[in-house]
Each structure stands twice: as C-alpha cells, then as structure tokens.
Amino acid sequence: MKLLIVLALLPLCRSAVLPLPQPSRVVNCDDAEAHEAANAAVQYMNSNRKTGYKFALNRIEDIFVHGLAPVEVFTVELDLLETKCPSLSPTPIEQCPVRPVVERAVEGDCDIKLKKDNGTFTVIGIRCKSELDSVENMLKFCPNCQLAPLNDTQVVHAVDVSLHKFNTGNNTAFYLLHEIGRGKIQSGISNSVDVEFVIAASNCSIDDANSGAACVENSGAGAHFGACSGSVVKNQGAADEDVVVQCAVYETQPGNVEQAVVPHVPLAPPQTNVVKSHFHHNLHYSSLGPLSSESNSAEQLAAQGSHAVKRSLTGQSVPPSAPRLHLCPGRKIHY
Ligand SMILES: *[C@@H]1O[C@H](CO)[C@@H](O)[C@H](O)[C@H]1NC(C)=O
Ligand SMILES: *[C@@H]1O[C@H](CO)[C@@H](O)[C@H](O)[C@H]1NC(C)=O
Ligand SMILES: *[C@@H]1O[C@H](CO)[C@@H](O)[C@H](O)[C@H]1NC(C)=O
Ligand SMILES: *[C@@H]1O[C@H](CO)[C@@H](O)[C@H](O)[C@H]1NC(C)=O
C-alpha cells in the first residue's frame, strides 16, 4: 500500500523538479552579456553578505537563457575566488586582490538565477558554497605553515594581543573584535601566528574601557569598522612575544550590519558570527540576502520565463532555435 502511494506520488514530484525547457537562445560563457549577468550576481552576493570576505568572479562555468525578451531568466553557474577585502570593506570588488595560491585560496561555487527585464539584471535566486584550496599549494611555499581553525587558541590569543596593541596605540575610540577572518600558524625555531580580523568602534573611549565600562559596538549611523592584520612571533626560549599590528579603519561604512553585542572582557571576547572550528567563512553558511535559497518567487519567475518560451508575441508556437554551439565554460580570469 505504502509502495503504491509512493509510486503514485512520483510523477508529481518529477514534474515539480523538471528542468526548464530548451534554452530560448544561446549565450556563451565569455559573451559580454554573460559577464554582465555574472557581475550583477557577484555584486548582489557581495553587498548582501556581512561576514567573511568578498568574492570575485574567476570563471563563468555555464549559462542558460530561458524565456523571451523583454523578460528572460538567466541561470548561471559561477566559479569565484575569495578576495582579501572583508565583506564590510567599502572597497569596490574590482579593486580587491584575490587571495594568492600561496595563502591557500578559497574557491566559491554559486548557482544563480537572474531575471533580465528590459536590459536590467535582477537576482531572483542564489545558492553558494566554498572550500579551501588543497594544503599542498601552501606547503610548497611555506613548509611549516598551516591554516588554523578560526577558534584555535593560538589564533584567538594572537587576535587579542594584536587588538590590545592597536587599542593602546590609540587615544580615542576603543575598538572591539567584530570577526576573525583568518589564522595561519608557522611553527619552527620561532612560532609565528598571522591573523586577519575585523574591528568595530564601540561606545567607549579608551579611558571608559580601562575603567571597566560595558562597551558595545556602535550601530546604525555610528557603526565604524576596520580591518586588521596582526603577527605574533615568539622565539624559542624568549620570554616575550613580538606583536606587530596594522589596522585600516574604513572611512565610509557599509549599510546596516547586525550589531554584535560584546560585553567588554579585557581578553578573548567571544565571537558571534563564526561557525566555530571552520577554517574560513564558508559561503554555504552565510546569509546571501532574502533570495539565499531558491525562494518561491524565484521558482515562480522561472516558471513565468519558461512559459514565455512556448509562445511568440502572436501567441503561436516558436520553432526551436537553430542549433548554435554553446561555448562553455569561459576562460579563467585569475588562476
Ligand atoms: C526600457 O529601457 C529603456 C532604456 O533604458 C527605457 O527608455 C524604457 O522606458 C524601458 N521600458 C520599460 C517598459 O521599462
Ligand atoms: C586611532 O583610531 C583612528 C580612528 O578612530 C584611526 O584613524 C587611527 O589610525 C588610530 N590610531 C592609531 C595610532 O592606531
Ligand atoms: C555603552 O552601551 C551600553 C549598552 O547600551 C551601556 O550599558 C554602557 O554604559 C555604554 N558605555 C558607555 C561608556 O557609555
Ligand atoms: C572550536 O569549535 C569546535 C566546534 O564548536 C569545538 O569542537 C572545538 O573544541 C573548538 N576549539 C577550541 C580551541 O575552542
């Protein structure tokens, strides 16, 4: 009986996941139009993501167009590379350097649906994931190096002392840790820990903080972020560690960012946004905005688009388009 029900349901499920009909026209992966769609998608993703780093387009893997102008639906598959600009950085993506292979790159992979309406692209659905490049590429250049999980005790310690050094060198605002982005440990005669993290201005002055006031990240118009890199080196046998820190406090600030309420504890403030034990900020776990999973509206628009395939303006069936080679994937932009 159960089997019968399952069998009876099968055709329904099938039709629900049926792929879109034949593409209505061929767009190749390196056509200007494909890059226009990809750039709109990357822009959408970067502006909706508030954790980790921005991603840049590396290659258009595949692209399909359904529907008829003026309203068409584009399905694109993109290969991305993580850049060194934190998501909260105001630097435009075109000016963000991608992370080089020596640092163990992060590759992103996105399936995106866009609507093209009268020449304008709008994202209607997006799904992404990302992963670290193999460790060999890093070890080739730095045999004793390894990336550490973002909650690794050495990483957290290096961030603490780096941020502390930055705060003591600054006689005005007191900055809190917003997010740890990366941690690399190089062991050997000296042990060196390199970290990257994002800081946020708090409502405390340095004096407030020193007298134990509760400090929270400024939000709204007062929100103020910056990016830091710190390096903490301890030579074998040495009592002290050398701390070098460099922070760039952004002049312009991103739009609304969820406030991480961090009670002021002198060292090791807890983090809010990191999926612990991860080595990087995986796209799969970050919110990419309201269309982050294939939403109903995405499906509906896609359905509308495919419906349009079947009819010409006069309401008659359109013959299948003449065969034209579909040239994909496109070329790699970076490596
Ligand atoms: C389509 O775009 C053109 C040029 O951008 C504009 O002049 C026109 O008003 C638009 N049409 C509609 C229906 O939005
Ligand atoms: C102190 O913070 C300001 C921003 O509030 C920043 O521009 C400046 O570089 C910091 N000073 C030091 C010594 O780090
Ligand atoms: C910062 O804001 C928190 C929460 O609103 C408040 O408890 C604290 O007293 C404020 N700190 C200062 C120095 O004003
Ligand atoms: C890091 O987080 C993972 C998962 O939450 C946990 O199992 C691990 O013990 C944490 N490591 C440290 C050093 O806190």
Automatic annotation (TrEMBL):
GO molecular function list: cysteine-type endopeptidase inhibitor activity
Region spans: Disordered: 290-326
GO cellular component assignments: blood microparticle; extracellular matrix
Keyword Repeat: yes
All copies of domain Cystatin fetuin-A-type, residue ranges: 16-131, 140-248
Subcellular location(s) per record: Secreted
Signal peptide: 1-15
Main location: secreted
Keyword Calcium part of the UniProt annotation: no
UniProt entry keywords in alphabetical sequence: Disulfide bond, Glycoprotein, Repeat, Secreted, Signal
Protein name (database record): Cystatin fetuin-A-type domain-containing protein
